[in-house]
Amino acid sequence: MDVPFSRWHRAIEKRRSRRHFDPNLPIAPEALAALDKVCNQFTPFTDARSRLETESAESVFKGIIGSYGKVKGAPAFIAFIGNMDGPFVQEKVGYTGEAIILEATALGLDTCWVGGFFRPEVVASLVGVSNKERVLAVTPVGHALELESWEEKLMARFGRSHNRLPLSKLARGLPRERWPDWINGSLEAARLAPSAANRQPWGFDVQEDGITVFVRTSGPEFNVSKRLDCGIAMLHLEVAAGNSGCRGEWEFLPSPQVAKFKIRS
Ligand SMILES: Cc1cc2nc3c(=O)[nH]c(=O)nc-3n(C[C@H](O)[C@H](O)[C@H](O)COP(=O)(O)O)c2cc1C
Fold this sequence. Notes:
CATH topology of the largest domain: NADH Oxidase
Shape: globular
Bound molecules: flavin mononucleotide
Number of strands: 9
Low-confidence stretches: none
Structural class: alpha+beta
Strand order of the largest sheet: 5-6-7-9-8
C-alpha cells in the first residue's frame, strides 16, 4: 500500500492521545472496515503487523493508581505485533503502528499508544500470535468523550504530555540556514511524534543527502524501547517529506543510530 502523504500529514497535527472513550458512540461500520483494511494492507516490513480487534477491548487495559495510563470504555483495540527474530523489529513496529494511528485519526477516531499498561497475554490470545511474535504495544480505538475527563487533564498536566522539545535541542549536523525546505517541515513533523511518557528520545543528524535518526537520550527504557518511539518519528518524518514532494528510502543502522532517510536524487 502506498503512503497517503497529505491525508496522514493532516492527521499528524490533529492526533492527540485520548484514554477515555464514549461507551454510547460506537465506531461506524464503514470506518471500522476502512481501518481494518489499512491494518492488513500497510505492511512495509515483514517483521511488523497490526491487528484490529472489536472483542473484549476492556479486558486488555489494566490501570494503575497514579498519573499514567488508564484506558476506559474503548469499543475496539489494535495490537502492534513484531517478529522478535527479525532485525530492527522495534523501529519497524513503531513505524507501522503510527501509520495505523494516523489513518484512525484521519477517519475521525481517537487512539492512544499503550506500551506498558496492558495485558499482553490477553491480547496475544485474542489476536493470535506465533511463538516468535510479541505484542509490543496496543492502542484503544473509538470516539473519545467530547470533553477531556478530569483524569485525562490531570495526566496531561503532570506528564506535560503535549509539550515538545524545540528543534534546536534535537537537530545537529548541517546548520539550519543551509537546510532545504523539506528538512524543516519533516523535522517539525517528527518532533510532534508521540513517545512513551513523552520522553522524545530522538535526535536528528541533518546531512546533504538525508537525515539520520538516532537515540539522543540515555537512561532506562521502562518496558518500552526508545527505538520503537524513534520508529514513530521516522514515519512522521517521511510523511512530511513526501507531502512536500521529497521521496526517499530508509536504511536501518546499528545503535545508537536508528536509520537514515536517504533522499532519492
Ligand atoms: C510507545 C508508546 C507507549 C505509550 N504507553 C502509554 C501507556 O502505557 N499509557 C498511557 O497512558 N500512555 C502511553 N503513551 C502515550 C504517551 O504518554 C503520549 O503519546 C505522550 O504523552 C504525548 O502526548 P500526545 O500523544 O497527546 O501527543 C505511550 C506512547 C507511546 C508512543
